[in-house]
Structures are given as structure tokens and as C-alpha cells.
Write a structure and sequence with these properties.
The structure is a single chain. The chain is about 10% helix and about 45% strand. By secondary structure, the protein is mainly beta. It contains 4 helices and 43 strands.
């Protein structure tokens, strides 16, 4: 059988008195011994106190990590320690510390911060930077050896508000400061011949003309309305701190010839050779024909009925198809010379004309361009030179107009590009939904008016495929376009492309334009460009 193990509980009451007295004497002796040991330890203890700026630095004693500042260390007896204090971004601090019994050795490590790097970027770039009153260059810029701490930074850029702020550089670190510069407001003044006109910006009334309007830079929709005039609307891009004046010639309501309104059109042949661009006056024409002349180069016939620009040109020679098109509108023709076929057409149609080559008045030449690209006329001057012939009633030929608020249905098309055959003679039209107009480009660049500097616009663009051929025996390589017949038509109106046909029954009739179902094509009141391209011409959207 296994031995049984029991437990015995002893209490002082169970002990004899003599044994209790002996236990008490033993406890007293142990207490006195512990006190003596403590006195001996205190008499041989040495203390090291380590502080630093910045605090929290790592402390090493004889290569051993012993803690972080502030730090208190004790050791027995005398000692010499090599103390090293380290903090990120600061130069190490080290010394030999002598420790003695019953003494506290105090060390203070003032750590020297490494310089940092400041990277400055602004939008837009090019701002002048001043750091603690010292010019440091233009953004974007990287500044090395910047003392750790807080610095004052000032950024300045023309047409933007100054930026002031504090930047903090951590010891040995790289700080990146990116600042979006605040543009100064733009100021826009509207000048128009109607003092009572109302000016709206992004749909909000902003007073009348001649008052300076403060606007945030960027794209702004400017609309001008006045009783008895056609509204004028454009998207305007305003730069920071820009001051711009828009001179707007408000137009009377579009004449309704069918309802009895009368017009007296005037036609001008305008050059489109490279040295003739930018032209003047095309932006104020009511109808512009573009067709090939010689060498794959196009030429314009501009017809003016509702506006009278002071400068139109460069004026060039006529071709018979330009004469025939002018005759459709019963418009006198302004030109400088003509092809043999052109002179024959003038005689056959009895079209009144002005011809500088035959000594007629109404022209001038400039010195900023070489001849023959420097001849100009004005609508008013040409009318004065023509006299009563310029006042005869005319028509808009076969062009029919609708209310501009009645938009055609269909899918919006991308930019329309027309190729006349030569790679360096392409015309493009891109739709602007804000103004419900088309913006013209030549060879990929905006086609501008020389007087206003604005891109040419059209309310409608008609692309007509017309048979053409080289005139037999013509040494200059002149073309002939069919004046009677019919062909394919694409009309760009209200952002959509409408397929249709053009038809001209005789030399004396007007060209009519219809959709594929035979409905007469109606256009927006405003400038119409008619792009006459040969059967091989191409139209693409993209």
C-alpha cells in the first residue's frame, strides 16, 4: 500500500513561547542585515543621466543600446562608458562619460539636424519662389541644403494671386510642396451698336454693354439679346487677368424674301491660295461658295446681303461658274480679271461687275503682302462704285430658311473633313453646340478672319458633288463645273448630317436643295457655306 501523505497546519498559538521569541529575534536580525547591504550598495552606486534635443534619441553605452532619452542609468562602482546618441536625420553625438560612486554624471546631447530638400511645383509652372526672403528660382525647382524647421515661402506668377505659406522641412528629409496658383479674374467688356442690349454670361444676366464684367477665367458662354435684333452667342475662352473687349455687330432679323423683304446681294471672288490666308470679310458673308480653280487650289465666292464688312479680300479673278452662281442671286460681281469663259459668262448673264483689271474703282492694294495677294475691296465702297446697279433687288436663290429654334433630328456627327484632291487643301467643319454653328479649319488649323482674328463660322454647310472636267485646249488647266443637272448633297445643319440632292434645271434657274424624300431642305438663318466638290471629292466624319 502506498504511503499516505497528510498536511499539518501550524499556528503561533500552537508553538511554545520560547520558540516564538527565537523566531522574532531572527527576523530582526535579517532586517538589520538587509539595511546594511543597502547602505553598502548606495555607497558604491554611480548614476548617468542622458538628455537630448530632440528627445527620444537612441542611447548606446559601449556599443550596447541602453534606451532612449531622457534616460537614467545606474552602475556599481567607478566606470568609463563611451556614450553615443543617435536620432534620425541628425548627426550622431558621442563622448566618454566618467562615472563615480555616489555621483550623477549628466550628459546633454544637442543633436545637429541634417539639412533637407524642398521640391516646389506649381500649376501652372513658372512661378517665382522666395524662401525666407531669398529668391530661389522658378518652379518647378528642387532646393537642396534647406535647414530643418519651418520656413516662409512666397510664390508669384503674372496674372495669378501671390501665394504665401509655411513649409516644414524634417531633418534630412525631402518635402514636396505643390501649389495650385489662384488665377486673377478676367474682365470682359461688350461693345455693340445697341445700348439697350442685355448681356448674359453662362445664362446669367450681367448688365448691359460697355460695362466691365469681372469673370472667373475659363470658358464662358456670352449671349447678347436686344429687341428687334438676332441674338448673338459665342463660347469665349478667357485667360487669368485678361482684359478683353468683344465688338459685336448685332444683326436685324433675317430677311424673309418670300414675305416681301428685299435684299441687294453683292458677290466678291476671294482667293484661297496659301499666301492669301487669313482672308478678310468671309466671316460676314451670308453665302460662301468654295470650289476648285486651277492646280487643286480652291477659291471662294462670297455673297453679302445683310452685312457690309469694310475689308474683303484678297480679290482674285473670276471663273464662269462663279459668274453663274452670282447670277442665281442677281448679285453684281466684284473681281480682278477673269478667264475667257468667265468674261463670256458675264456677257451672257449681263451681270453687273467691278473689275480692277479694267480700271474700275472700289479697290486698293496693301503693302504687307506681295501681289497678287494684296488686292481688297469693301462692300460699301463696291456698292458706291456700282451705283444704282448695286441696289437692284436680288434673292437668296434656292436657299430656304427655318426658325433656328426648330432643330433637325438625328445623331450628332463628328468633325466633317472635305478633301478636294490635294493633301494640302482640306477643309474641316466641327460643330459647336453652344452657338449651333460650325467652325472651319484649313489643313487641320483654325481658319481665321484677318480683321477679327476669330475662326470662321457657318450656320449651315452644304456639300454638293458636281461633275467637273478640264476645259479642252485650255493651257492654264482650268476647270469647268456642270451648271445644269443634279447630284448628291450632304447638309450639315443643327449638328446632324442630312442626305439629299441638289438640282438646277437651267442656266437661269436657281439651284434647289432637297432631302432624299423630296422635301425642300430648310436651313438656319445665318451664314451658309456651299462646298462644291468634284465627283472624286471625299467627305469623312471623325
Amino acid at each position: 500500500m502506498a504511503p499516505r501523505i497528510g498536511t499539518t497546519r501550524l499556528t503561533l498559538a500552537a508553538l511554545p513561547d520560547s520558540l516564538i521569541r527565537r523566531a522574532a529575534l531572527a527576523a530582526t536580525a535579517l532586517t538589520m542585515l538587509a539595511g546594511a547591504v543597502g547602505v553598502i550598495a548606495w555607497s558604491t552606486m554611480a548614476t548617468l543621466r542622458v538628455d537630448s534635443n530632440p528627445p527620444g534619441a537612441d542611447v548606446f553605452a559601449d556599443g550596447n543600446h541602453v534606451g532612449r532619452t531622457p534616460l537614467l542609468l545606474n552602475t556599481m562602482g567607478s566606470a568609463t562608458w563611451h556614450v553615443r546618441v543617435i536620432a534620425p536625420g541628425h548627426a550622431p553625438w558621442e563622448t566618454d562619460a566618467q562615472l563615480h560612486p555616489r555621483n550623477t554624471t549628466q550628459l546633454f546631447a544637442s543633436l545637429v539636424a541634417f539639412p533637407g530638400t524642398l521640391v516646389l511645383e506649381t500649376d501652372p509652372p513658372g512661378a517665382a519662389a522666395v524662401l525666407d526672403s531669398e529668391d530661389v528660382g522658378q518652379t518647378p525647382i528642387t532646393i537642396d541644403n534647406v535647414a530643418a524647421g519651418v520656413h516662409h515661402l512666397q510664390l508669384s506668377l503674372d496674372d495669378y494671386a501671390d501665394w504665401n505659406g509655411a513649409v516644414r522641412i524634417a531633418p534630412g528629409a525631402t518635402a514636396t510642396q505643390r501649389v495650385a496658383m489662384g488665377p486673377l479674374p478676367a474682365r470682359l467688356t461688350i461693345s455693340t451698336q445697341v445700348p439697350a442690349a442685355a448681356v448674359l454670361v453662362d445664362g446669367t444676366p450681367r448688365g448691359g454693354p460697355e460695362a466691365e464684367i469681372e469673370l472667373e477665367p475659363g470658358q464662358r458662354v456670352i449671349r447678347i439679346e436686344a429687341d428687334g435684333y438676332r441674338p448673338w452667342q459665342r463660347m469665349v475662352e478667357l485667360g487669368p487677368n485678361e482684359r478683353r473687349t468683344l465688338e459685336v455687330d448685332l444683326q436685324r432679323p433675317w430677311p424673309d424674301v418670300a414675305d416681301g423683304d428685299s435684299i441687294s446681294p453683292l458677290a466678291v471672288v476671294v482667293e484661297n491660295e496659301e499666301h492669301a490666308r487669313p482672308q478678310s470679310g468671309l466671316d460676314r458673308a451670308d453665302v460662301v461658295y468654295e470650289a476648285l480653280a486651277e492646280g487643286g487650289i480652291t477659291r471662294f465666292l462670297a455673297i453679302f446681303a445683310t452685312q457690309e464688312p469694310d475689308v474683303v479680300g484678297p480679290v482674285r479673278s473670276a471663273r464662269d461658274y462663279f459668274v453663274e452662281w452670282a447670277h442665281e442671286y442677281r448679285a453684281p460681281l466684284v473681281h480682278i480679271g477673269a478667264s475667257p469663259q468667265g468674261f463670256a459668262a458675264l456677257a451672257a448673264t449681263q451681270t453687273p461687275d467691278l473689275d480692277e483689271a479694267r480700271g474700275h474703282p472700289g479697290f486698293w492694294r496693301t503693302k504687307d503682302r506681295a501681289a497678287p495677294h494684296n488686292a481688297y475691296t469693301s462692300v460699301g465702297g463696291a456698292r458706291a462704285a456700282l451705283g444704282a446697279k448695286a441696289e437692284e433687288a436680288g434673292t437668296f436663290s434656292g436657299l430656304l430658311y427655318k426658325g433656328n429654334s426648330l432643330k433637325k433630328a438625328g445623331d450628332l456627327e463628328g468633325e466633317a473633313t472635305i478633301s478636294f484632291g490635294r493633301a494640302d487643301y482640306t477643309a474641316s467643319w466641327s460643330y459647336d453646340p453652344v452657338s449651333n454653328e460650325y467652325l472651319r479649319s484649313m489643313n487641320g488649323a483654325p481658319h481665321l478672319d484677318a480683321q477679327s482674328g476669330e475662326q470662321l463660322r457657318a450656320s449651315n454647310v452644304l456639300i454638293a458633288w458636281v461633275d467637273s472636267w478640264l476645259i479642252p485646249g485650255d493651257s492654264a488647266g482650268r476647270l469647268q463645273f456642270a451648271q445644269v443637272g443634279s447630284g448628291r448633297l450632304v447638309a450639315l445643319v443643327d449638328g446632324v448630317a442630312v442626305e439629299g440632292t441638289w438640282t438646277k434645271d437651267s442656266f437661269d434657274s436657281s439651284t434647289t436643295y432637297k432631302t432624299l424624300d423630296g422635301t425642300p431642305l430648310t436651313l438656319n438663318a445665318g451664314t451658309t457655306w456651299i462646298e462644291v466638290i468634284p465627283a472624286t471629292g471625299r467627305l469623312s466624319f471623325g
